[in-house]
Design brief:
mainly alpha
Length: 75
Amino acid sequence: MATDNPRVAAYPPQRIYERLVEFKRERGLKSDSAAIIAILESYFFGSTPDADSDTPETNFRLSELEVKLLACLKM
């Protein structure tokens, strides 16, 4: 699919990619690109497009809290 949008490439560590896959599943997003755009939009503008939620920012914030909680429990 052709686009005029700029291309961004990354090689994340496995643990980051696994979280990206989980993020996609949670939000019903079909591609890595859609998930990365949602994450960047949330980071830069405070909102996240979501496949089936009326409150994507809340879902994103809850996901981030879950990640932080799991990290604390591993300490």
